[in-house]
Amino acid sequence: TTGQKNKNTITNDKGRLSQEEIERMIQEAEEFAEEDKLLKEKVDARNQLETYCYNMKNSISDSDKLADKLEEEDKSAVEEAVTEALEWLDDNPAAEKEEYEEKLKEVEGICNPIVSKVYQGAGGEEGEEADEDFDMHDDL
For the chain, what is the total number of helices (H) and then of strands (E)? Predict the structure, then answer.
């Protein structure tokens, strides 16, 4: 050590925030927190729809999953529903959370019965697997 001693004094000088400014900043932060929460819910809903569509698209083209098990008519119905939903996503980047959820229900309404039919015909073990693969949005 050099043997020098320094004395630091903290004072409430210029540049400090007043109590009024602090309260205003807290209020703004609370308002932004609500906006952030709503935006996150909207993004999550969009991601659920997008993930579901891409999982279905991959499943119907993967011979280890659904490709070889689907009748051509069912495969076309799934492809059409998924393609339409993905186009809708591209055309509606500013959609609301509820719109994304409604579109997901619509696509699931077409795809889930087809997938269930395939796995019910294959037996119980794969049927449970199908529930995990295609109902993943329930876990989020």
Answer: 4, 0
Cα angle: 77, vertex 102, 129; to 5 degrees: 60
| Residue 117: burial class (beta carbons within 10 Å; 0-12, 13-18, 19+) | middle
In terms of phi and psi (left: phi > 0; alpha: psi -120 to 50; beta: otherwise), the region of 68 is: alpha
- Identify the band that residue 130 occupies on the pLDDT scale cut at 50, 70 and 90: very low
CA dihedral (110, 115, 120, 124) positive or negative:
negative
In this prediction the pTM is: 0.68
Tokens 């499943």, residue located: 59
Q: Collapsing DSSP states into helix, strand and coil, what is residue 9?
A: coil
DSSP string across 64-99: TTTTTTS-HHHHHHHHHHHHHHHHHHHH-TT--HHH
CA dihedral 34, 35, 36, 39 (to 10 degrees): 120
Domains of the chain listed by start with CATH number:
45-139 (1.20.1270.10)
